[in-house]
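Meet our chain:
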Amino acid sequence: MSKAGKEKRLDQLHEEIRQLNLEIPADLNKAIKLYSQAQIIIGHLDADALYKAGALYAERKKTYAEAIRQASGTVAEKEAQAELAVNELRIAEAAAKAESRKWQNLFDSYDNLIIALRRDERALYEEWQKANELYDS
């Protein structure tokens, strides 16, 4: 699936979650499942961004080495020319790393959210048990 396809599916999951009432146990359980599904997609998006950052790093190192080899002048002049040659690659690499960090942060946030939702689910279940005990007595 393409990045756009993954992001579209992620948007669909978010829309499904927005439609749920987290006060209803079945909806709460479904939200946990949907957030878990979203984490799978987020993991793929992060992996794609990490791959892109790594590929850009490799390309930058190769371009730098080629620029040094082809340049003339002192070592400092060669390094300056090589740095100019890789400037755009450095910027693209930084953008890919930032993209990866964005997905990592979202994944971690969902981890925390799922933990909180599971606590809510347990609390609802305990309330339900207490209500049933009162009703049965």
